[in-house]
Amino acid sequence: MAARASTRVSIAWSGADPIEDTDTLVLTIDGYSLDLRVFVSGPDEGKIDWSTVAHVGEVEGSTKENPILKWDHIIDSRPPTDMPDQGKFETLPNGDVIEIGIMHNPKTNLYEDYVETWRRMKLPSSSPYVVLESQEEGVQAYLGRVGEHALGLAKSKDEEYCAWRDRLESGEWKRICEFGSAVEKLLPRLPSDLPVEWSKGETVHLNGDSKWTVKTVGKL
């Protein structure tokens, strides 16, 4: 599949019971990963837990049955760490997927074993997908869509992280959440219907003068 949308069901750190205190959406599109995780409980409710845009690919030892994937971050809402972002995947009998690996736990400031459970969202056949990139004036920004799900993620030259999440309802985009003082300037909305003339490598305009490069576009 060239594109998919996933939500996280739970995470378990260092063998502890699984929890889920975020609303997480990950769009995996033709080698790109756009990821936004927002706390829905606890002292940081309503804030970003973690958000990234990354190139994603398989690493040595990966198999069709048990892929091992690595994410090379392009932008990141968290400070960089020395630990590679990679995990091994296994499909459960109910169709959910578990990811097993080691990563930095910001709550303990330690590198810990983790097990995440992911659920693939159902998508109608012929759902559109797209990734757009903008690197104007020292800003790295990305827009991604898979079916009715869309993310806008950007990091400005002063290190501010901006993000939004939209869902298509009755032919119109509904804003689920947004973050950052420059979000409207850096991250315009996607059109509800992808223009048929958009093609990979083309420069397109959003909101007038906003220039974006089409990194990939198509239908499932």
Describe it for me?
This is Protein HRI1. InterPro entries: Hri1, Hri1_N_sf. The model has no long low-confidence stretch (mean pLDDT about 95). The protein has one helix at about 185; strands spanning about 5-15, 20-30, 30-40, 50-60, 70-75, 85-90, 95-105, 110-120, 130-135, 140-145, 150-155, 160-170, 170-180, 205, 210-220. Strands 1-2-3-4-5-6-7-8 form an 8-stranded antiparallel β-barrel. The protein has a 7-stranded antiparallel beta sheet with strand order 13-12-11-10-9-15-14, with no helix packed on it. The chain is built from 1 helix and 15 strands. The protein folds into 2 domains: about 5-120, Lipocalin (Beta Barrel), CATH 2.40.128; about 130-220, Beta Barrel (Lipocalin), CATH 2.40.128. Strand 7 (about 95-105) and strand 8 (about 110-120) form a beta hairpin.
Question: Which terms summarize this structure?
Answer:
single chain; 220 residues; mainly beta; Lipocalin; 2 domains; eight-stranded antiparallel beta barrel; seven-stranded antiparallel beta sheet; 1 helix; Protein HRI1; Hri1_N_sf
